[in-house]
Task: inverse folding
């Protein structure tokens, strides 16, 4: 399937910004499940200072603000050919050893809520059925509902709320899968939905490492493994490491942000 993606993030400031620096992870790479035919990131109101691959093999661009700017726009667009591999991504890439994907972060630190969830787990013995059952258990206990959580909500708090979005589902899966002994990571990317072209935001899911197979994706929010509707962009131990845009700026200017995202089949 050929998917055309246009993703624009526009920032406006109520006074000039003397200095700012952003890290953007908005460039998908060709992998077993996808081939990137074309991709371009265009910066308006800023300058590209460096491009490199981070420890997870994500393409990272450092973007500085133009001095005194009151707006900044990042426009990503391209075409990706996707293949349904039933969620299988394959071998580890990047410089991070597998044992590191068992490490806890502030967003994926297990507590009583995660442990209680696993106590109710009817655990199949085989790896793949076990991970699918874990995904289903999370969705049963944490309904998909925007507005109850935010970008800084850890997995423990999302379970306590009983509601969340794809980011929360991915964090809970990663937290629980690590407790079950699976190296796990967070994935940010895009999802083509046949009933719409314009979307409010990108998508997130999780991947777990299964010996003899490699990395396998699990989209808790949609109750499935990623297929040819999905485009992987970045991975990390949690959403902070795989976020499309992070950064800092100097000054006290107020900020407003507008996101436009179109994903369509060609």
Result:
């Amino acid at each position: 399937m050929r998917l055309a993606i246009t993703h624009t993030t526009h920032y406006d400031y109520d006074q000039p910004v003397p200095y700012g620096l952003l890290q953007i992870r908005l460039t998908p790479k060709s992998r077993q499940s996808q081939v990137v035919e074309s991709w371009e990131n265009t910066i308006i109101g800023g300058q590209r200072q460096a491009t490199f691959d981070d420890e997870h093999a994500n393409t990272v661009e450092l973007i500085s603000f133009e001095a005194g700017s009151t707006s900044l726009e990042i426009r990503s667009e391209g075409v990706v050919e996707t293949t349904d591999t039933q969620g299988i991504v394959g071998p580890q890439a990047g410089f991070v050893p597998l044992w590191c994907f068992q490490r806890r972060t502030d967003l994926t630190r297990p507590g009583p809520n995660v442990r209680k969830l696993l106590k109710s787990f009817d655990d199949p013995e085989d790896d793949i059925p076990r991970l699918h059952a874990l995904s289903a258990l999370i969705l049963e206990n944490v309904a998909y509902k925007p507005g109850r959580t935010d970008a800084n909500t850890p997995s423990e708090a999302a379970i306590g709320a009983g509601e969340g979005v794809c980011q929360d589902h991915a964090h809970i899966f990663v937290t629980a899968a690590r407790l079950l002994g699976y190296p796990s990571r967070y994935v940010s990317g895009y999802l083509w939905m046949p009933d719409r072209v314009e979307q409010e935001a990108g998508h997130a899911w999780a991947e777990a490492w299964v010996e003899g197979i490699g990395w396998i994706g699990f989209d808790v929010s949609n109750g499935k493994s990623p297929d040819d509707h999905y485009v992987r962009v970045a991975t990390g131990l949690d959403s902070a490491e795989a976020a499309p845009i992070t950064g800092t700026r100097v000054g006290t200017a107020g900020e407003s942000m507008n996101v436009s995202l179109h994903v369509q089949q060609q």
User: Anything to note?
Assistant: The two ends are 8 Å apart (CA to CA). The longest helix spans residues 127-141. The chain has two domains: 2-82+245-265, 88-242. DSSP finds five helices and 16 strands in the chain.
